[in-house]
Amino acid sequence: MFYRYHLFFCTNDRQDGSACCARHNARDARNYLKQRCKEAGIHQEGGVRINSAGCMGRCDQGPVIAVYPEGIWYSYVDQEDLDEILQSHLLKGQPVQRLRIPAG
């Protein structure tokens, strides 16, 4: 496996004003977690890869992140939630149950 975890942040911006992850500052959140992973030394091969994604079809539950290979989906509110995902899931392999949303 090239990466232990591959995260996809929905950063879709709907121009019609309807619900979307961009309205929750998803790009800033992606950049924040990516930087935190770099600081932790895990944003590299064998570690974590963080990418932006277009609409992931979960606008009513946004903003959302999908973590693979497990297929775990999260919704988050702030940087504290992102830090918890980093500390618990990405560093210790323990998903954050309180932030999970159903995968399908």
Number of separate structural domains: 1
The number of helices is: 2
- Write down the CATH topology: Glutaredoxin
CATH superfamily: Glutaredoxin
Helix percent reads 25-40%
Explain what the structure shows:
It is a single chain. By secondary structure, the protein is an alpha+beta fold. It has a single domain, classed as Glutaredoxin (3-Layer(aba) Sandwich), CATH 3.40.30.10. A five-stranded mixed beta sheet has the order 2-1-3-4-5, with helices on one face. Helix 1 crosses helix 2. The protein is globular and about 40 Å long. The mean pLDDT is about 90.
Map the helices and strands.
Blueprint: E1 5-10, H1 26-39, E2 48-53, E3 64-68, E4 72-75, H2 79-92, E5 100-101
Parallel strand pairs: 1-2
Antiparallel strand pairs: 1-3, 3-4, 4-5
Helix pairs in contact: 1-2
Brief description of this entry?
With about 100 residues, this protein is of the alpha+beta class.
Key descriptive features of the protein:
104 residues; alpha+beta; Glutaredoxin; 5-stranded mixed beta sheet; 5 strands; 27% helix
